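To whoever is on call:

I kicked off a structure prediction for a single chain this morning and the downstream step that reads the tokens threw a length-mismatch warning. I double-checked the sequence; it's 162 residues and nothing unusual in it as far as I can see. Pasting both halves so you can look.
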Amino acid sequence: MNVAGRPRLRHAIATLTLLAVLPLAAAISATPAHADFRVCNATQSLIGVSIGYRAKAGWITEGWWHVEGSTCKTLIEGPLSSRYYYLYAEDAERGGRWDGPISMCVADKQFKIAGVSDCFARGFQRAGFQEYDTGEQASWMVQLTDQPGTNGAAAVTGAGSQ
């Protein structure tokens, strides 16, 4: 056995491995980062989710996205254009909700509503949305979780990435 030749062999294998990985790394880094606003449902129930945001034309609320238990759903695809987003969700099976202090309009069925005032007069309901300050993040994820001792009402966490 030639011990003197082994380091050279290890170096050759390491070099070949690195050369095989470099094209893959270049392809991954050439792919733009995926940016979006996602909601993850950490419960076992079906959840209906709506979102509010400020657009060039004014305030918009949209819904309902159905998010199955233990899954995630993208609500807005692409880089975030607003700093603040607002979320309201309901547990379709147990009747709880994830809400907040910001009043916006919602509807019973799928909707996209312009404006947040006079909800009842325009034939909509009013719901309390939770505000998320996404700062300068290109994407954001909110996780809806059960909170012990409540009927579906839950803890909400948000996280961003650039």
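Update from on-call: the warning came from a stale cache, not from the record. Cleared it. Sanity check on the structure: The domain at 36-161 is CATH 2.60.40 (Immunoglobulin-like).
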